[in-house]
Amino acid sequence: MAQRIILADPRGFCAGVDRAIQSVQTILQASSRDIPEGLAPVYVRRQIVHNKHVVDDLHAQGAEFVQELSDVPDAAAEAHIPVVFSAHGVSPAVQKEADERGLWIVDATCPLVAKVHREVVRFVNNGYEVVYIGHRGHDEAVGVVGEAPEHVHLIESEADVPSLHFEEGSKLALLTQTTLSVDETAGTIQALQQAFPWIEMPPKADICYATSNRQGAVKELARQCDCVIIIGSANSSNSVRLMEVAREALGDRGRAYRIDDAGELQDEWFEGVETVGISSGASVPDELVQQLVEALRSRGYGDVETLDGVRENMHFVLPPQLKEFRKARA
Predict the structure, then answer these.
(1) Which of 64, 119, 129, 140 is catalytic?
(2) Which of 141, 155, 179, 274: CA 20 to 30 A from 87?
(3) Global pTM value
(4) In Å, what is the CA distance from 296 to each residue of 3, 269, 275, 276?
């Protein structure tokens, strides 16, 4: 049988990532050339999305990425230089800091993440404690927990459930990080329901459609391949999970790897491999996939086909602050 490549579908950019990247690009394209000396045309708090290639590309175009708002020069507010919040969202404390400094904020938080923020506020205002399943330290989780730190209890797995203590019958709700799937949280949710049978489950609409679709595609991909390559950065939660899903689906039949780009391929990965499957995280540009395809073609994988998958038509409008920005720059 000829060596071949199968591309997962869907893969790559989701609507929230596309919206966040377009937000920064829109500012860069509309910015005048008379930016005060020493200032960037746009500042972005943290990585706009968790992909180093996207960040490096936007930085090369002029975007300045900062870890905290304190790293944004005071002169940026005076010059009305936009500061973009990443797709992962921020806590009220960060928003308050921006307001106090008079920074011109463009909020590129994914609407699905923003929805979870609103749910936290609604539950807490109604007297609930919230159990939140997420990755400790992940930007999205930090922002959500920051809505009400004393009432939102973050856990990462079922092993953390015994550390929780709530009175029987108390108001208790469950929410999850949007990049986690039903499969990924099933064991933790079961443990929570056993410990606290009255806990209210998260709305199904909170499950990120892109996460579910991409994991489903990778499961099917793994059934047809000897080796699966996932493109995505190490700090991308959904990319790492795609690799884990592929490994689980492959079992002893094959291997799965995560890479940032084709330059990380190792020849020994493909010994005895006839079919290589490719997918990518929700923040990965498709050009990296095409570069990987070309690298594999040079290794003899000449046939390329695409796995039929879910058709995605989700689209999010750009942040409303961009309309004001365009008017100011017109």
Answers:
(1) 140
(2) 155
(3) 0.95
(4) 10, 11, 11, 9
